[in-house]
Amino acid sequence: MPRAMSNVWDAYTVTHVLASGSSASGSGTRRWACKYCGKSFSTTTTRLISHVSGVGGGGIFACEKVPPEIAEAIKNEHRLAQQGKEARRREMEATYVELMDDVDPSHSEASQRARTVSQRDEEDESTSPSCHPPPMQRPKQGSLHSSMLSSALQKQRQKVVEIEIERCILQCNLSFNVVRTDAWRRMVKIIAQVGPCDDWHGVEYNRLRGPMLDEEKDRIEVQLEPIRLGWKTYGCSIISDGWSDTRRLHIINILVSSYLCTYFLRAIDASRAGVRITGDFIFEHIKTAILEIGVENVVQVIIDNASNCKRMGKMVEKEFPSIVWTPCASHCLDLLFEDIGKLSWLAPLVSDAKRIVTFIRKNHLALAIFRCHSLVDMIRPVDTRFAYIYMVFHRLHEVSNVLRISAIDHRWISMHTANTELARYVQRKVLDDVFCADIAALVPVLRYIYIVLCIVDKEGSTLGLVYHMYTTMREAISSSTTLSLDRFFLCVYCSVFILYSFIEHDIIDLVDARWRTLCRPIHGFSALLYPFFKGPTLWAQTMVGLERVPNAYEAYGTFCTKRTFQKMFGTLSKFFFSRKQKLI
Questions:
Q1: Which of 523, 565, 529, 566 has its CA nearest to residue 545?
Q2: In which band, very low, low, confident or very high, does the pLDDT at 136 lie, cut at 50, 70 and 90?
Q3: Fewest C-beta in 10 Å: which of 171, 281, 283, 577?
Q4: Strand runs labelled E in 393-493
């Protein structure tokens, strides 16, 4: 509720207006003219009272023309207002202490010990009957004053709770984002509904880490039962990937993906002594997961493209003919980025980009200069991050002008590392037009691959899009105008100047090579069944995977010839294609 304007402005000034224009509150600095001396000021209410009361001080002199009786009346009025304000402050402090005692009884004991002997003696003297003022009459419950007091006490209780919540979060080193979660809101609401309990202080430690954890696991299992039932109706895919935690312990996750969601099945500790992560080791755990889910419910096993994973995939297809092994599309596209970065004419460019980013990020003076001119930071090249080459190139292209401004900044020359060989090399590269032009030419080409990577790496079923997005990406790279046959650039490698042709054919060869590694018969089946892309021309394309249909027939144990495949899905294809033409 905004503060009302004091009545002294209209009583003792000729004119008054807010110095800041407008305000919802009556407080604030005002430009005013004294009613008695006529002088103009720009102050708050406190200094106006000091002026017209004849006291002065606080940055304003006393008015010499104000009548004495008016000055004395202003002093008395101001004194009564200050006493009332102090009484309200003490009342709120006493209420806060009482509430803190309700929350934590030790608070009153600590405050009692913190007082000095003289303070306790003064309190003992003030407890005599003669010193006690007559008790105030309790206001009626239905009065307006009672409701306002109740509202004020409720706000004060909430303030105490907020203080204790803040202390808990700070002392337990919890993230501030925890208060934004729905779980936090539900917890606070339930605790408020329970109300005060004298003999209850929350969940016990042993019960929380033992029986309650098992009970929550059982409740989650019940909630996930519809997802497991969906595996029997629609089928599912088993996904496995390995990673290392902060202690460098190797863990293999096994997940189950279906049209509903991705289900975490279990984690395997592969960091035990004597454990070798071979194809046989991975196969045993994948086989256990397949038998647990049901062989008839599993469509494919998705894992990365390492040699032990390929061996595991062959063993799965041999053991379970109805299940296929599918390489991870995201991992294949990430390897495509790494293959492009290893091209002889591109490796020096990648090396220069890494040197520039590493130098600026590790040199705090250079980083401070860069941040003075840029609102975004440099992206650190991390080998374990997907498509880090594109991210580094894209950010360098985005801040190329900022890098040039930083390199010619007078503070760059005054750095203690400015005369080192690395600093001079970074400065030359940043100001090199050829280097910036090469980055600008590569970013649009790599963007096509990055878009496909983002699509296949997201949550949901994207198997039917792999072929269509991959072929679209290849066509876009082939028709790119940023990489042309007549474009040449001069690169430096091992102190030898070599002239390279900057063409797109090297990238296209790598794209085709990675497609041969990624392409499986299931991609062809999914591409043909995807409703949006259905059409007669799709059957004539050779990269769909139909040239490998005999292998697909063996894997599925269903189809025998290409004609049988077309007979079963041709009618459905024509139906979707006719519906698409009608919509168009």
A1: 523
A2: very low
A3: 171
A4: 488-493
Q: What are phi and psi of 42, to 5 degrees?
A: -135, 95
What is the distance between the alpha carbons of residues 71 and 8, in angstroms, rounded to a whole number? 12
Q: For residues 22 and 39, is the Cβ–Cβ distance under 8 A?
A: no
Alpha-carbon radius of gyration of the chain: 38
Can you tell me the distance from the alpha carbon of 501 to that of 489, in angstroms, rounded to the nearest whole number?
7
**Mean pLDDT, the chain, as a whole number?**
77
Q: For 341-351, give one letter per residue: b (16+ CB within 10 A) or e.
A: beeebbebbbe
Query: Which bin fits 174, alpha (ψ -120 to 50), beta or left (φ > 0)?
Result: beta
**Do 253 and 264 contact (CB within 8 A), yes or no?**
yes
Short-list 16, 21, 70, CA closest to 45: 16
CA-CA distance, 198 to 254, in Å (whole number)?
A: 46
Q: Give all strands (DSSP E) within 170-285, no chain letters.
A: 236-244, 250-257, 262-269
∠ Cα 264 268 272 (to 5°): 160
Terminal-to-terminal C-alpha distance of the chain: 59
pLDDT for 480-539, tens place per residue? 777 654 443 444 333 333 333 445 578 888 998 888 888 888 887 787 777 777 766 665
Q: Find the DSSP H helices in 294-328.
A: 307-319
3-state secondary structure of 300: strand
Higher pLDDT, 35 or 174: 174
Once rounded to an integer, what is the mean pLDDT over residues 287-307? 90
